[in-house]
Amino acid sequence: MKTQLSRLLATILITMFALSPAWATCGGGGGGGTGGVGGGNNTMGPAPTVYKVPWKLWEARTVPQKGLVLYWFPASNDEVKNSPLKTSRILTLYSAQCVTMTVGDAGLPELKNIIGESALPVAVLATHDGTTIKKVDSTAGKLKVGEVEKAVEAEMKQRESALDAQLKSGKEKAKAGNNDGAIADLKPVAAERCLFPKKAKDAAGQLKKLGVEEIGSIPESPIFDRVQGARIEATLRRGLRAEIAEQYATALKFYQQAHKMDPADPTPLRYLGETYRHHTGEWDKAREVFTQILNMPADAVARAVALHGLGKMTIHDGEFKKGLKLMEQAAEEFPLPLTYRNLAVYWHSEGDLAQGNAYTQKALALDPKDPYNLVFAAVFIAASGNTDEALKIARANHNLLPASYNLAAIYAQAGQKKKALELLRRHFFQYERYQAVRAKEMMEARVDAVFDSIRYDSGFLALTSGADGKLQMPMRGMPTMQNQNR
After folding, report:
1. What's the confidence (pLDDT) of residue 6?
2. CA 339, CA 216: separation in Å to the nearest integer?
């Protein structure tokens, strides 16, 4: 049923937005938390995935000017959706250290020299200027993530050995009093702060002894050891399972533990920040964590989640343009449905239906079956007057607890006050567990245009009586403010 409904959305939305009033928008919960990339299958099953490799489609304009590039040439769209190459901790960490992860189209003439005569699927590790280093061919039509990881690790170890020799030479020359020779050996090692931060830090320390101070700060290197990495990943999974079970204090404990196990790994911070922002309402802690991610070498997914989170909180605090810029930066870093949904809401609240529609379509394109995307789009469909279609989507996703606010918005616009209040109650008092979040959500509901039909209903006012009072409720007949999809 969901598949059939998702196929209808693209055509419905295109015609619907031309008819929508400027205030038609979407409200609160759904899709946040779980490290910022929930919604879909990544959090399902006994071993939910916690690392997301930031694969991006190859574009000539974004070809890196330094480091290495790992090209993945898949054989089909299904492979892109289901491959274990999407969930590797090793590849995620390397992506933050100047190893760009690129999905290539084998049919593009610009990439012919890289793929050569290899059959699809194939992975190719190359220099930033396109020189092939290593190819990993498929076995029985499938790429093995372990073999791809080993190809990258082998090249990194070889380069690291060369740096070790140069570092040793520099130290010996310094010991012998040949300062100029030592500096000449050590400076290139210190310059490799992105690919090899540990070696760069060692070289920078030696250079400082020689009076060279302009090296700058060098970040810590994450843990690449597979045994330790497996423990970190297992700890994150325990946290994610606890979060899915709505045991947020337990989830935070495991996320904090994973962070302590490897402070240079941004993924535990991504889960921590989203839990603070979305579930517990500890926005001061969320801001601190997200800022920490942006100040360290971090993969594009972690940076996108941090920028989105900061943007959402900034908009909520009334700095709309600043928050918009942060969310636009998040979308540029890495496309996430949650970011696109919030950008759609922003532009609808500004009365720019064309941009609102474009971002809604982008969210759907990333995952047409994502229930949060479907329910989000259905709120707009209801606003257009096509309530029958919207209600079909709402009924199909009735048990999706985190989407209760948006489900309530659909029923409110369909004139079903009782059902809308029932779902809002479910959102505030079953889904939300912390008063800090509940107070914000109640306030947003009071000013959200999707609840215009019940705004002054006594039941609605009683239900939202815990609102934090930071926003002014519109007077009868006055335009309403817009809430944001969290």
Report:
1. 47
2. 33
